[in-house]
């Protein structure tokens, strides 16, 4: 088994990887061969498909040479129905997502994690974003009870040999009762891991310990915690998602003209369809169309583009009987343009950020290698972080960080 001090400085984060794509199996095997022995997943990543992918990628010989971290909490109606028990800690996050950190539900999800991961133990199991209880108006005292009850269950699972360690993954440790938790460390000896977002914009060097005081990463490490960070290359800047990775798209002016022609033709088809239905052909009166007229060239990434098309545009086109093969082909073509525009916009904003960071002495404009791997090195060098989790979905991404291992 991998000892804590042997965990690689770069970990493979599998948030956007699932068993639906068999090519990821080769990427995981390649990453392990290159020296990455930390693999991070969660029940909520594809509702088990990420865990299933890892289980398909490792064999019994490989298992003891890697450190697997998974997380518990997120669920859906299908899984809750399978659980078939009353859970007073179950909360609704949105129409598709439920959440619970109750001991019985954790135990239920742990057994499913073990089966999907094809292993009889998990190196570390994390409570996944327990701050949701705070956001749902649970008091600090109520959340403390939930976390402590969960920890007691996880200690039992360690004794049973199903876990080695456990911890908390949170997007905001200031929203959980950190003081109460840290004051009770002696009764939770296997609580060893903390995970949170960290990047060049969101440099979370400390967390609110109580109403007046903060605690730093260095102080947490001195208390015996192993610090994992996620989201190293995605941040929010000026209210908009920014990808902290370079692209080679330098000009889109010629593409803008091509896109304008295709988009105008689509608008004309929509107007014609509305007229045939005796509806008002003034398309600016319809929100789905207005949204794309105003925003299609500055959407932050392909995920946002796909969501906007699927949630806004397709339902509208279907309502006016305009979802035919030709229209779908036009939309797919437009999505390709919009993706290129998003990459160009991202690069422009990233270049501006680099100028600012260099002027503040935060980065060196003469860095070597690609910007993403340079940032990962900075995080490890200056922050006290033990391991940085990165979404290395291609072998070339693994190659770019091998020198940091």
What this model shows, in words?
- It comes from Chryseobacterium vietnamense.
- This is Aryl-alcohol dehydrogenase-like predicted oxidoreductase.
- The structure is a single chain.
- This protein is an alpha/beta fold and 405 residues long.
- The protein has 15 helices and 15 strands.
- It has helices at 23-33, 49-57, 60-63, 77-83, 103-117, 131-135, 140-159, 178-182, 217-222, 253-276, 287-295, 302-319, 325-359, 371-382, 395-401, and strands at 10-13, 38-40, 67-72, 74-75, 91-94, 97-99, 122-128, 163-169, 191-197, 206-208, 214-216, 226-230, 234-237, 240-243, 387-390.
- Strands 1-2-3-7-8-9-12-15 form an eight-stranded parallel beta barrel, surrounded by four helices.
- Strand 8, helix 8 (178-182) and strand 9 (191-197) form a beta-alpha-beta unit.
- The chain starts with 9 loop residues before the first strand and ends with a helix.
- The model has no long low-confidence stretch (mean pLDDT 93).
Tell me, rounded to a whole number, the average pLDDT: 93
How large is the count of helical segments? 15
Helix/strand/pairing category: alpha/beta
Q: What would you call the quaternary organization?
A: single chain
**Beta-strand fraction estimate:** 15-25%
CATH superfamily of the largest domain, called what? Answer: NADP-dependent oxidoreductase domain
Largest sheet: 8 strands, parallel, barrel
What topology, given as strand order, has the largest sheet?
A: 1-2-3-7-8-9-12-15
CATH class of the largest domain: Alpha Beta
Compressed to H and E, one letter per element, the order equals EHEHHEEHEEHEHHEHEEEHEEEHHHHHEH
Radius of gyration: 24 Å
Q: What is the second-level CATH architecture of the largest domain?
A: Alpha-Beta Barrel
Question: What does the overall shape look like?
Answer: globular
Model regions low in confidence, pLDDT < 50 over at least 5 residues = none
Helix proportion range: 40-55%
Assign the CATH topology of the largest domain: TIM Barrel
Give the termini separation. Answer: 19 Å
How many domains comprise the coordinates? 2
């Amino acid at each position: 088994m991998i000892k804590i001090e042997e965990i690689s400085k770069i970990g493979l984060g599998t948030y956007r990887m699932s068993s639906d794509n068999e090519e990821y199996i080769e990427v995981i095997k390649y990453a392990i061969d290159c020296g990455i022995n930390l693999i991070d997943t969660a029940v909520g990543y594809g509702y088990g498909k990420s865990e299933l992918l890892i289980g398909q990628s490792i064999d019994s010989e490989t298992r003891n040479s890697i450190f697997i971290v998974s997380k518990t909490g997120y669920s859906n109606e299908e899984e809750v129905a399978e659980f078939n028990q009353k859970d007073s800690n179950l909360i609704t996050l949105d129409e598709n997502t439920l959440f619970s950190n109750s001991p019985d539900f954790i135990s239920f999800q742990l057994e499913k994690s073990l089966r999907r991961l094809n292993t009889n133990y998990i190196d570390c199991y994390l409570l996944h974003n327990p701050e949701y209880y705070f956001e749902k108006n649970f008091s600090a005292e109520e959340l403390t009870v939930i976390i402590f009850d969960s920890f007691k269950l996880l200690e039992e699972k360690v004794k049973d040999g199903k876990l080695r360690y456990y911890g908390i993954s949170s997007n905001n440790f200031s929203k959980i009762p950190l003081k109460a938790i840290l004051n009770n460390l002696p009764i939770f000896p296997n609580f060893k891991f903390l995970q949170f977002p960290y990047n060049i914009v969101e440099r979370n060097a400390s967390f609110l310990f109580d109403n007046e005081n903060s605690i730093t990463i260095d102080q947490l490490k001195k208390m015996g915690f192993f610090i994992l960070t996620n989201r190293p290359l995605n941040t929010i800047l000026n209210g908009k998602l920014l990808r902290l990775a370079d692209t080679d798209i330098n000009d889109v002016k010629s593409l803008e003209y091509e896109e304008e022609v295709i988009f105008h033709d689509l608008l004309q088809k929509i107007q014609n369809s509305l007229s045939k239905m005796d509806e008002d052909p003034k398309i600016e009166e319809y929100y789905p169309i207005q949204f794309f007229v105003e925003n299609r060239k500055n959407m932050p990434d392909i995920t946002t583009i796909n969501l906007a098309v699927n949630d806004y545009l397709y339902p509208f086109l279907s309502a006016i009987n305009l979802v035919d093969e030709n229209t779908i082909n036009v939309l797919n073509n437009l999505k390709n343009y919009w993706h290129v525009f998003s990459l160009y916009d991202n690069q422009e904003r990233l270049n501006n950020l680099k100028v600012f960071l260099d002027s503040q002495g935060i980065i060196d404009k003469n860095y070597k290698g690609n910007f993403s791997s340079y940032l990962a090195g900075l995080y490890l060098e200056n922050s006290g972080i033990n391991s940085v989790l990165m979404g290395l979905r291609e072998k070339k991404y693994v190659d770019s960080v091998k020198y940091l291992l």
